UniProtKB/TrEMBL annotation, chains A, B:
GO terms assigned for molecular function: metal ion binding; prenyltransferase activity
A Pfam family that the UniProt record links to this protein: polyprenyl_synt
InterPro entries: Isoprenoid_synthase_dom_sf, Polyprenyl_synt, Polyprenyl_synt_CS
CDD domains xref list: Trans_IPPS_HT (cd00685)
Protein name in the entry: Geranylgeranyl diphosphate synthase type I
Organism encoding this protein: Actinoallomurus bryophytorum
The keyword Transport is assigned to this record: no
UniProt keyword terms in alphabetical order: Magnesium, Metal-binding, Transferase
UniProt cofactor(s): Mg(2+)
Family (UniProt): Belongs to the FPP/GGPP synthase family.
GO terms of biological process kind: isoprenoid biosynthetic process
Signal peptide range: none
Length: 352, 352
């Protein structure tokens, strides 16, 4: 099945689930409409990468196309939605997928309505609750997918692990940012460790394994050899795009990761290689919420001049090559291997 | 089975689940220890009311005592933990169950460790993530309870509905506080509507129905006639204790609900009956974070003088009587009816 067709099936399953919840919320109160509107807006974007890897884990392990699998796979988009909504509250991000972040939408509702108290606190509170709704709907959708009980029971340990891992990875990331940079190469190692738990497992390894486990694969663990390096390459690419990407494609303002002060592998590579003067400039500008385009350009030029961008691209190439080699030997059918080879390119492409 | 024995079984199931997660987090990183410590602290308190109602829904519908049921029932404590942690972030509460609120614990960790950036933002972020972990563990624990698939399938719609309802009720509550008071009796009606969705269903009606559904009851819907009025009486009692309760018993500083500015039914009844001068005093003091004991006493005396406390006590008596009458006719065995009669007293008692 081609990617566009998978995406269509995933979207249909996702929207069908949300549409079934709509009357339930309407029955409670019409005042809940902004919750659904914020969710609709968020779900209209996104690349559906996790469901797609889940699908190919299933298909590559001999599973037949069936609507129940698309429903189970699409449930991962609700986990991702909940994680993004909460992430944006924590980071104070303004935009997500080219739209205002959920908490900013609710802030706007508060301001427009002329309500009392802090619009910011209302926005954050409403977004925390919407994220909570997404997290519980994720599991409601997965468990209610209609897949046979024995399939769900096989998938559950991975489904559960994935959710705990992404939240723990997020905590470790936040803790690392708060603790401040380590010296030299230890900083790169630490950033890579967080990438493993927060992104690589969550985005690629676990979804792929989930699909395989649902299909009854006996070789679930072996898929890590492909999923983990590709997941790292994917996140490193995302970090590069967060600094150098085209806002029209990333859905985020130019250099937004720099403004948020994200201590990515790319930043760690930069600081590892920087002169004292360069390092001081990075530490001054990185994480400045008022960072303008000149400041973004200054940081970009240091990232390039130190050789960090080249080093990061080399790492991406290396992890991608590891993933491709592992894929060739992976316990997956020929069709699955071919499709995943295409996805490997998509996940690590220089444009999104 | 007596209440203390049920509580013991519920506690054992709860701690056994958390203990099984512990090595998983340790394996990711020792830096996750504060997450588990904050959860342990929160779970050491609480009355386990929801699991107890779930147990009696099961037992009253002919279910036999079995460890799997205690596990499924105890999972509701993780939902409650997640809701409380997020609620405390949203309300900026300092304490919970006599301990520092989770976000304050993480704030303290940040400050003690001498980390960079805002301790407050770190505290809120870590607590959002810990609440997310609790929400996903709730469903992991419920689904992994070991109850037969057909029992879980019967319980699922109520389990799912309950989770969506509590989050939506929370949103409506927050929205109501932001929009500001309605005039006269409409304010009381509005506060009662939120009590129904946010508390009554979530604390009593749904847990009871969940137990009954798991046991295969054909009369799940009929349990609302008991669960809903008792749930309302329970929340009204909680509101009274939030203003007049003994801090040693409530685990919250005296008058904390007043300091947080909660627009409870009790407050609505007060404003409905207040003179212009009294209403002005209430509007000035209510929600003042720096409200001292004198201010608390002033508000208490207005709540008493307007007759709002008496009116609230009458409502509690009325809803409790409705619940007792419904219980006598409820589709539950004699043992279940007797136990729930005792729980009715506990849930609405003037001391906690």
């Amino acid at each position: 099945m081609v990617a566009s067709r998978i995406r269509k099936e995933v979207d249909e399953a996702l929207y069908a689930f949300v549409d079934r919840q709509r009357p339930l919320l309407d029955a409670v109160s019409g005042d809940l409409a902004p919750m659904l509107a914020a969710l609709d807006s968020l779900l209209s974007g996104g690349k559906r990468l996790r469901p797609e890897f889940c699908y190919w884990g299933w298909r590559g392990s001999g599973g037949e196309d069936r609507p129940e699998l698309f429903t189970a796979a699409a449930s991962l988009e609700l986990l991702q939605a909940g994680a993004l909504i909460h992430d944006d509250v924590m980071d104070g991000s303004d935009t997500r997928r080219g739209q205002p972040a959920a908490h900013r939408r609710f802030e706007g509702l508060h301001a427009e309505s002329g309500w009392r108290g802090s619009a910011e606190a209302f926005g954050a509170g409403a977004a925390i609750l919407l994220g909570d709704v997404c997290l519980t709907w994720c599991d409601e959708m997965f468990q209610g997918s209609g897949l046979p009980d024995e399939a769900l029971r096989r998938g559950r340990p991975i489904f559960d692990l994935m959710r705990t891992e992404v939240m723990c990875g997020q905590y470790l990331d936040m803790r690392g940012q708060a603790r401040g940079p380590l010296a030299g190469h230890a900083m790169v190692e630490e950033a890579l460790r967080i990438v493993r738990f927060k992104s690589a497992k969550y985005t690629i390894e676990r979804p792929l394994q989930l699909g395989a486990a649902l299909a009854g694969s006996e070789s679930v663990a072996e898929l890590s050899a492909y999923g983990m390096p590709l997941g790292i390459a994917f996140q490193l690419r995302d970090d590069v795009l967060g600094v150098f990407g085209d806002p029209a494609q990333t859905g985020k303002p130019a250099g937004d990761d720099l403004r948020e002060g994200k201590r990515t592998v790319l930043v760690a590579l930069t600081l590892e290689r920087a002169t004292t003067a360069q390092a001081q400039t990075v530490e001054t500008l990185l994480g400045d919420p008022a960072l303008d385009l000149d400041g973004v350009e200054t940081l970009r030029s240091i990232i390039v001049a130190t050789g960090a961008l080249d080093a990061c691209e080399k790492m991406i190439d290396g992890y991608t090559a590891d993933a491709e080699a592992a894929l060739a030997a992976a316990p997956l059918g020929a069709e699955g291997r071919e499709a995943l080879s295409g996805l490997t390119v998509v996940a690590t492409a220089r444009t999104v």
